[in-house]
Specification:
Helix 7 links the parallel strand 5 and strand 6. By secondary structure, the protein is of the alpha/beta class.
Amino acid sequence: MKAAGYDAAAYALADLGVNIVTHVPGYGASEVFMAYSSLIQKRMALSFHEEVAYSICHGASIAGKRAASLMKAHGLAKAANSVIDSLYTSLTAGLVVFVFDDYSGAHSDNIMDTESFLKGVGVLFVKSAMKNLYEDIVSCYKLSEQKRHPVVIIINAAKINNEMEFDRAGSLKKDFTYNRNILNHVVHPFFADYQYKILTARKLDGDLISIIRPKLPVIPDELPDRYKESYKMYQPFFNVFRGYKKGIVCGDTSSSSNFCLPPYDAIDIVTYIGGSIPLAIGTYMAGNKYAWALTGDFGFISAGHLGLTEAAYRELPLKIVIFYNKKAAATGGQPIDKKIMLRLLAAYEQYIKHIHNPMDPIEISQVLDEAVNSDLLSIVLVHY
């Protein structure tokens, strides 16, 4: 069949069964997004920040659904924090990032050397021969699922309107099953050496089986001393919270994420600081209807509030826990002015529930009861 490039891309997504698609408006990305929305006859929400858009798709792909994030090349640079951390995880289903390159700079701030940027970041990428765009997209999902890594497809934005000829492959849909594995899904200093070896072996088509899996520390006895004080602080909350854990729980790069370890097993996916909320959005969109996001106040202020904006915009009933200790606990205890948090949360007052005494298991249980039984967005502020 003959169709414009944006339609070829939309057909490829539909044939692959990719129904989680995020999009930050931009030349090329918007054309494909509108074509796909029209093809599936569904009005889909846009995203406001590429880091959030990418993280949503990353969470969905770990949870077992193929995902696509559409953005300009400059936007991928904004998402690099999440992209780099995602390389140290293993996907369940394919994740392809459609990067629309503006080689003339006519629709951008400047002309960006996208390929050099991607090589520096270390992400797998394919530069599409535009006449084979449909086939290139299909190949990128195969590569992503073979390597269990995200793949970027570079698309010449100026040619997205060009007519091209291609044969649709029919249904290429595939089912995937999520299995909890924190070595594959939690980016953590305890696992850094192992995850780096896995990443290196995958790039070089090396032998993954020979890489020795580290023994998971059991908390609190096998925690390094520097983590034990924070363990004592969070322990009463997690003693109760693990009884409310039904679906996939996303955390931040912080000391609270040590509770991913046995015997608590309370957190399942962790990447960058502030990433828990967009990751949880992705797992919710992938079918995880008990989606929890756990973050500290520093992580929420630095990046998490971007994800909260999108969760509210999409009207998702996420369950968000913010450990409000008024300091950057994971990086030395630098103080945080409480007025910043109050200003960021002012628009969400109707969704906020407070745990004023985080040492009281009865109060914790009552508040978590309210959150888990609500069909609205719930933000639990744990005051320390």
